[in-house]
Design a protein that fits this description.
The complex is a heterodimer of chains A (371) and B (143). Chain A is of the alpha+beta class and 371 residues long. Chain A has 14 helices and 15 strands. Chain A has an 8-stranded mixed sheet with strand order 7-8-9-10-6-2-1-11, with helices on both faces. Chain A has a 4-stranded antiparallel sheet with strand order 12-13-14-15, with helices on both faces. The chains are: A alpha+beta (371), B alpha+beta (143).
Chain lengths: 371, 143
């Protein structure tokens, strides 16, 4: 991958402009009008839902309206995010057959995230790729990523949390927190981390961008040269903007969804496990899991990793048991007085609050897992 | 349930975007192959074109989301949708679990049955998959 890539920086733009631009650059790359591109973008306060998500299910629209927070829709998949001046967006737009970019999605995620990880390392941040597509520091998320394709091109993008406003994020998004009490908010804050928090102070934006450029260049083996939007891209942007500024794009519910929030407290000899789940009962999926309690987990990050492992997994009892047992088998985790099956049972009770006993639940799940 | 990604039924035709076609008298059923669903991963959302809509071979006709990735549905033939598998739009797991059966995507009227001649037979598609898997292994080794 010794090719020249364009380095594009479009600065701070409204949400509709940023989202339209993603589609424009992707289309331009697919048509061969532009070279592969690393694009930096910055945001006014905005909530960006995933391509197939429903705004009404994911966003507190009233709060956003009162606080002048824009709502828009990404071309990529995944969950809703809150972005503002404290977030740097990066995206790679490339031809699908670019030598060195893996065709299999999981390997592609890993390679492209390693570029961002290498960039963060240049700033002195020991970040790590966490499958399927997060970048974390000590278990706490510093960058979420996602992607899409169009024709012969792909876009893979992510954010770097420079100086993140967690309180606003919690209020904008319908997160798996039943009550916004201080303890829950604090627990949620512990799931994400910003550059400022890791480094103690925030490097200037040009320094962060330069580090990211060097990270991607070294991992992908590419040479980046600063460029601007072409006239064709500007024309395409003019054509696309009205759609991205419309309710049809932003508020159209793209898919039938069934989202519910469920919380359960489960007492064990090692302490209380509190599980809050966002469930898609139509698709039998755990959308997000939020696990807290008064137990002690070693290493501390284990619970955050467990939450990541549960994201978008099947909530059928047999599958859930395999996910939970598989996680603990693959990780060195010590939680005095609590077994992996206790976590399974707490999760299972949040999904199916039927009052069935622990042993009976395990037996049923084991028999369906073995099928 | 684990599906064998190399499974290629004898009675179907294939394309290099990993779709299968089962044609009978001017109509066809299309779906994603076992290898195609394996490469895509666990499918979370699927958007299929409605009955009555026309589409062209290889052109964007819907979306498939897996692991934060939105892929495009690229039909292997040109035609008009007679029926979409609407059960998949509420629960797309059928594509992963039974790609050649309950996970079918569209039943279509073919606009140009001669397009079928350009599709791969099972032997050629097996060879295509083998090449892709070799490439994946090389990529994995390079990472």
């Amino acid at each position: 991958m010794s090719d020249y890539w364009r380095l594009l920086d479009t600065g701070t733009q409204p949400a509709a402009h940023n989202m339209a631009l993603e589609r424009v650059i992707l289309a331009a790359r697919s048509r061969g009008l532009i070279p592969n591109t690393l694009h930096f973008l910055e945001f006014t306060p905005s909530v960006l839902v995933g391509y197939h998500q429903s705004v009404s299910l994911e966003v507190d629209e009233g709060y956003c309206l009162r606080h002048g927070i824009e709502i828009n829709r990404r071309v990529s998949g995944g969950g809703a995010i809150y972005v503002d001046q404290g977030v740097l967006g990066w995206e790679l737009v490339a031809c699908k057959d670019t030598p060195g970019i893996p065709g299999r999605l999981e390997e592609m995620y890993r390679l492209l995230c390693e570029g961002a990880v290498a960039g963060l390392a240049r700033l002195g941040v020991a970040a790590r790729f966490r499958p399927k597509n997060d970048i974390e520091v000590g278990g706490r998320k510093i960058s979420g990523t996602g992607g899409a394709e169009a024709g012969n091109a792909l876009i893979y993008h992510g954010t770097v949390l420079n100086d993140f406003d967690v309180e606003t994020m919690i209020r904008c998004l319908r997160l798996p927190i039943a009550k916004l009490d201080d303890k829950q908010v604090q627990s949620f804050k512990e799931r994400v981390v910003s550059l400022r928090e890791v480094l103690g102070s925030l490097p200037a934006m040009p320094v962060i961008k330069q580090a990211m450029v060097e990270g991607f260049a070294s991992v992908l083996g590419i040479r980046l040269e600063a460029g601007a939007l072409t006239e064709q891209e500007k024309k395409l942007l003019e054509q696309e903007l009205p759609l991205f500024q419309s309710d049809d794009w932003t508020r159209g519910t793209r898919r039938l969804q069934n989202s519910s929030l469920s919380t359960v407290d489960y007492k064990t000899t090692g302490g209380l496990i509190r599980v809050t789940l966002r469930l898609d009962r139509t698709r039998h999926r755990i959308r997000y899991a939020f696990i807290t309690g008064d137990f002690f987990a070693y290493p501390e990050r284990s619970i955050l990793d467990l939450e990541a492992a549960l994201k978008n997994t099947s909530c059928e009892p047999g599958d859930l048991l395999q996910t939970v047992r598989g996680f603990f088998a693959a990780h060195q985790v010590r939680i005095p007085g609590i077994t992996p099956d206790d976590f399974f049972y707490a999760l299972q009770t949040a999904i199916y609050p039927t009052g069935r006993g622990r042993e009976q639940s395990l037996k049923t799940a084991e028999s369906s897992a073995g099928r | 349930m684990q599906v064998d990604k190399r499974f290629v039924p004898e009675d179907l035709r294939y394309d290099r975007n990993d779709y299968w076609v089962k044609a009978t008298a001017g109509e066809a059923v299309i779906g994603l192959t076992a290898y195609g669903q394996d490469v895509t991963g666990d499918i979370l959302y699927l958007e299929l074109p409605p009955a009555g809509s026309s589409f062209r071979r290889g052109e964007d006709s819907g979306s498939i989301e897996s692991g934060k990735w939105v892929g495009r549905l690229l039909p292997p033939v040109t035609g008009m949708v007679l029926e979409r598998n609407s059960a998949l739009e509420t629960d797309p797991s059928g594509v992963n679990q039974d790609p050649y059966g309950a996970g079918w995507l569209l039943r279509v009227r073919l606009a140009d049955p001669s397009e079928l001649d350009g599709l791969l037979n099972p032997a050629a598609y097996r060879e295509w998959i083998a090449g892709q898997i070799r490439r994946e292994r090389e990529e994995e080794a390079a990472l």
